[in-house]
Each structure stands twice: as structure tokens, then as C-alpha cells.
Write a structure and sequence with these properties.
2 domains, single chain, mainly alpha, Serine Threonine Protein Phosphatase 5, Tetratricopeptide repeat, disordered N terminus, 15 helices, two-stranded antiparallel ribbon, two-stranded antiparallel sheet
């Protein structure tokens, strides 16, 4: 009878090439001996791993998107878009992806011969999580190896087009399995459709993107007060705008976001870039009174990001709302406002303007004077402004500029457009060989 990986937590992996060489079925049991409780534990183990994966990737889009400046505990951020095949963060992200994939594929193999609610939840969770990992890889590297199971074979890099097809296939497979619960801490159909909408947007399948985003929008409601929106990142939160969130209720090895931007010891790494203090949430043509400023960062004199509450007393620390447990705040992966922006972007200026206005009506004191942008470039500018206002500090900016091909918005990029694909880590090429792992264009000249 086929053996499966039963215990995968704690495996230390150094990259795809190394993972594929070193897999050993420690603690394996037969699929026939799996119980509902076993599958539940394996599923929780995958979500536990995803918490670490998501948190490690969290700040990339803000740092590289040039919307952060250095905080009191960080050296100056200079040329933040620059990467080489030996950049430590590039290797670190790559390793995190394949460590997560190892456990996800193990869960899929474990659940493949089982039935019942726990097996269905395991399959839905695994397909969704694998798609989420590959979404992060495709948007960074483009061409990556597609690892479909537990294998010791060398797997060559696949073209980005195949990677995107794999992502969409996994998400459609996830939709075939019922969700265990309606909480955003479970993988629901809304979570799957939201990630599908984002994937379709990246692949230019705009009708499908608008349809998937529309399905999510039709079943959820937007918040309309600063306090209720700010509660999204407080302990145990399941606000009505949260589509999918990792609960982060671990009793040890706390995963926290606030120390990077608003630590209680005064040594955080990042603050908002200087121009954003003055301009990001300022009144704009047709838009006044943006409620998101108060929940994003303090005034220009303090220069502190408050989006992720750091304690329980707003009067004595930099935060906007009370957070009962700052070390166990949820890691919010998908939020409803993004679906409005995705749908508006997919629909285009004429049809999408109405969709965008529905979101903005909950974010501003007054948008009655807002008019449809005169041309497509102005429409992109409006969308990018709203993406940044809504998702400042949530790692979106670099990816939004890349997807919309608005490289003119970068200050440090210059003519180095090759930096819109991350380099394949050099040590991975050394292990797998350049034939299996060809380097992305442009990086041979940077070493």
C-alpha cells in the first residue's frame, strides 16, 4: 500500500533542488490507516506553514514598490528594486516556496484516497494553498519548476504561461470540494474565487477576472467606518471584509507584523516614504475625506505606520484601535476591497468606473464630484492611487505597477526593466544546472 508523508512539520529545506534530493518519508503511515482526526491535523499543519510563508513574503511589494522609508531600526533604503542571483532575500523567498509546497503536496497525497468532510477540506485547502504559493512565485520569477507531488526527480523550470495554467487549474479543482465552514479562517469558495480573479487579471483573461470578483462582491459587504476597517488586523478578527485570513492563533513562535513598522521598543524597520505623509491620503479631484489615513499612519511629525495594532491601549502607543493580543493578530491574505479594484480594472474605464465608485463611497466622506477619467492612462492612475491607499503596508505596490506595466511610477528603476522578474537564486542553478534552471534575462550582467 502506498506510503504517504505523515509528519512534515519542522523539515528544514534549502531549495527546490535540495528538497527533491532529500525527501524521506519519516513517520509515514498507510492511507488506509488515516482517520478524520489525522487529516484535520495535517490540514492545520499546512495552514501553520502558510502563516510563516505569507509573513516572510509580506513586505516585498512595499519595500520594492518604493512606498517605505527606513525606520529607526533600519539602515537607509537605497535602490530597493535592485536584485542579483546572490541576494539573500531572493534565496529566502525561493526556499520558503518549496518548503511550503513539500507539505502541501504531502497533504494532497494523504487525502487522495480518503473521503468525508475532513478529506474534502484537506483537498480544498491544499489546492488553494498550492495555488497561492505558485501565485507568489509566478508574480516574482515568472518561470519556475512545477512540483505536483512528492518526488525525488529533478524538475526543470516551466514557462510562466504553464505556471499560470497550473495555478488556475488548482483553483478550479479547489472549487470542486465543499468548504468545511464559512469563517474566513477556512478556505471557502469566496477565497478560491478571489484568488482566481487575481490570477485571471494577471493572465489578461479580464472577463473571467470580473466574473470571479463579481461573485465574491455579490456575497459580501463593505465596511464604512475607520474603526471597523482597522479591526481587520486585531486578534481573532473576522470582519465582513475579510475573504481569507490565516488565524495565527499559535501558542508559540508568534508571527507578528507590527514590529517591522511600529514596534513597542522604538526600533521598527520601516515607515512611510516621505512624500506619502503629505500626498497619499490627501483630498484629490472629486474625492475628499479619505477615512483610511487615520488607520494607516500617523502625522508627518511621528511618521509611524499604525495599520497593524501593537497593543491594547491606543492612548499610550502608536495605534488606532485596541488589539487584545498583538502577537496573534490574523494574517489577512484576501480582502473584499481588492475584488472591487480587480473587477474595475478588468472591466476597463467605462464599465469599471461604476464598480470603483461603489468602493470609494465607503472610503471617502464625499465623492459626489468624482468624474470618469478622460483617458485610459488617467484611469490607470486613479486605480493605482486607490490600490495604494487601500493596501499600503500589505505588500501590493510593486506587483500592481508590474501587472499594469506602469514602470514610469518607479523612482529608482531607470532602464533596468529586467528587474521586473526576480533572478533565479544562483545556488539553485549550481545544484540543478543551467539547462534545467536557466537564469532570467538581464542578471548575467549584474554579478
Amino acid at each position: 500500500m502506498k506510503k504517504i508523508l505523515y509528519v512534515l512539520l519542522g523539515l528544514a529545506m534549502v531549495g527546490c533542488g535540495k528538497i527533491l534530493d532529500d525527501i524521506a518519508p519519516k513517520g509515514s503511515i498507510t492511507t488506509g490507516n488515516l482517520t478524520e482526526k489525522d487529516l484535520g491535523k495535517l490540514t492545520n499543519g499546512v495552514l501553520y506553514t502558510m502563516e510563516g510563508f505569507v509573513s516572510k513574503c509580506w513586505w516585498d511589494g512595499d519595500v520594492m514598490g518604493e512606498v517605505f522609508s527606513e525606520g529607526p531600526g533600519q539602515a537607509a533604503l537605497v535602490d530597493v528594486t535592485l536584485m542579483t542571483p546572490s541576494t539573500p532575500s531572493v534565496l529566502s523567498r525561493w526556499q520558503s516556496c518549496f518548503t511550503a509546497l513539500l507539505q502541501i503536496n504531502g497533504l494532497l497525497e494523504s487525502a487522495s484516497s480518503s473521503s468525508g468532510a475532513a478529506a474534502e477540506n484537506a483537498k480544498k485547502t491544499a489546492y488553494f494553498c498550492r495555488a497561492l504559493v505558485y501565485y507568489n512565485m509566478a508574480t516574482r520569477w515568472g518561470n519556475v519548476p512545477i512540483v505536483r507531488g512528492i518526488t525525488t526527480s529533478k524538475i526543470a523550470i516551466s514557462p510562466a504561461s504553464d505556471v499560470w495554467k497550473f495555478i488556475i487549474s488548482d483553483l478550479n479543482e479547489a472549487l470542486k470540494h465543499p468548504a468545511t465552514g464559512a469563517s474566513p479562517f477556512y478556505v471557502t469558495d469566496n477565497a478560491v474565487k478571489a484568488l482566481l480573479a487575481k490570477a485571471y487579471l494577471w493572465t489578461g483573461e479580464t472577463a473571467q477576472a470580473a466574473s470571479m470578483a463579481g461573485d465574491v462582491i455579490s456575497s459580501m459587504n463593505l465596511l464604512s467606518s475607520a474603526e471597523s476597517i482597522a479591526g481587520t488586523w486585531c486578534f481573532g478578527s473576522t470582519t465582513q471584509e475579510t475573504v481569507f485570513s490565516l488565524a495565527n492563533k499559535r501558542s508559540d513562535n508568534a508571527i507578528t507584523l507590527y514590529p517591522s513598522v511600529n514596534d513597542t521598543d522604538g526600533s521598527w524597520n520601516y515607515g512611510p516614504a516621505g512624500d506619502l505623509y503629505r500626498s497619499l491620503y490627501a483630498d484629490a479631484e472629486g474625492r475628499t475625506g479619505d477615512i483610511r489615513r487615520a488607520i494607516s499612519f500617523t502625522d508627518e511629525n511621528e511618521k509611524v505606520i499604525v495599520k497593524f495594532p501593537n497593543g491594547d491601549d491606543p492612548a499610550s502607543s502608536y495605534q488606532f484601535v485596541k488589539n487584545d493580543d498583538r502577537n496573534r493578530s490574523p494574517l489577512v491574505v484576501l480582502r473584499l476591497p481588492e475584488m472591487y479594484l480587480v473587477k474595475a480594472e478588468a472591466e476597463g474605464r467605462t464599465a469599471g468606473f461604476g464598480t470603483l465608485k461603489k468602493l470609494l463611497e465607503t472610503r471617502y466622506a464625499d465623492i459626489s464630484a468624482l468624474e470618469m477619467p478622460a483617458d485610459d492612462k488617467a484611469w490607470e492612475d486613479l486605480l493605482l492611487d486607490e490600490y495604494l491607499r487601500e493596501f499600503f503596508g500589505e505588500g501590493h505596490r510593486w506587483f500592481d505597477l508590474k501587472r499594469m506595466n506602469r514602470l514610469d511610477k518607479f523612482k529608482t528603476l531607470g532602464d533596468r526593466e529586467y528587474l521586473m522578474l526576480w533572478p533565479i537564486p544562483q545556488n539553485e542553478i549550481d545544484m540543478a544546472g543551467s539547462a534545467a534552471y536557466p537564469q532570467n534575462p538581464g542578471y548575467a550582467k549584474t554579478e
